[in-house]
Recover the amino acids of this structure.
């Protein structure tokens, strides 16, 4: 008599370990599957039929791995003097404005809010502060702030020194990476010991030195070296004699 769908054997190659248990797995779309039956785990993969869909075992093994470690984590952009902003108040177009310059004192003016500090805040923080000010005039205001042009706070630039070239300061923008900076400065300096470069990152606990292989990034497209940069980072490129 033909065996039922649940009783069909799983196929394994080589010497495997037989496992039998109810398990719970998640599909890439977030749907939960109940997995039962017997499988052979062989050389890091398994092939099976029955309730367990083909390839589900490998999906489960992959899901158990830790996520890739990012060499750095981007910080949110903080508004600086001379930045240009747009403020959108949903449902109140008369209060929405575009191209507002941040004054040297770090403040901006919009309808019904004649003066509010913008410098040093993230766009999200400024949006919340403006919404709080508008509560007197608008019911449940929803405010979005967009930075149209970036200059940043003093000291937030990414500085590039060494390699026999003139020091360069690149304005920090949200999610800027090492490759963005190299593109901005026109590539590697002529006398750069590119793979000996490093980033100096300042923190309350002291400076941190992060080695980066610029040659691998720029010349071979090794994106594992394309780390996120933070405000005030200093990229040091040692100089070579050859």
């Amino acid at each position: 008599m033909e065996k039922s769908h649940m009783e069909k054997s799983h196929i394994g190659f080589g010497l495997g370990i037989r496992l039998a248990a109810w398990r719970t797995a998640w599909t890439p779309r977030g749907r939960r599957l109940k997995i039962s039956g017997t499988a052979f785990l062989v050389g890091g993969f398994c092939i099976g039929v029955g309730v367990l869909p083909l390839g589900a075992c490998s999906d489960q093994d992959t899901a158990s791995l830790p996520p890739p470690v990012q060499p750095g984590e981007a910080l949110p952009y903080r508004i600086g003097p001379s930045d240009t902003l747009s403020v959108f108040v949903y449902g109140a177009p008369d209060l929405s404005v575009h191209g507002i310059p941040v004054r040297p004192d770090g403040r901006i003016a919009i309808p019904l809010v004649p003066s509010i500090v913008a410098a040093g805040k993230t766009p999200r923080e400024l949006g919340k502060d403006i919404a709080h000010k508008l509560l007197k005039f608008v019911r449940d205001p929803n405010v979005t702030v967009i930075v149209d042009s970036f200059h940043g706070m003093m000291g937030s630039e990414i500085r590039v020194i060494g390699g026999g070239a003139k020091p360069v300061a690149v304005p920090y923008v949200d999610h800027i990476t090492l490759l963005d900076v190299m593109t901005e400065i026109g590539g590697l300096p002529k006398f750069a010991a590119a793979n000996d470069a490093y980033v100096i990152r300042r923190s309350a606990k002291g400076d941190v030195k992060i080695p980066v292989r610029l040659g691998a990034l720029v010349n071979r497209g090794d994106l594992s070296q394309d780390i996120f940069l933070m405000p005030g980072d200093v990229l040091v490129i040692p100089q070579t004699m050859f």
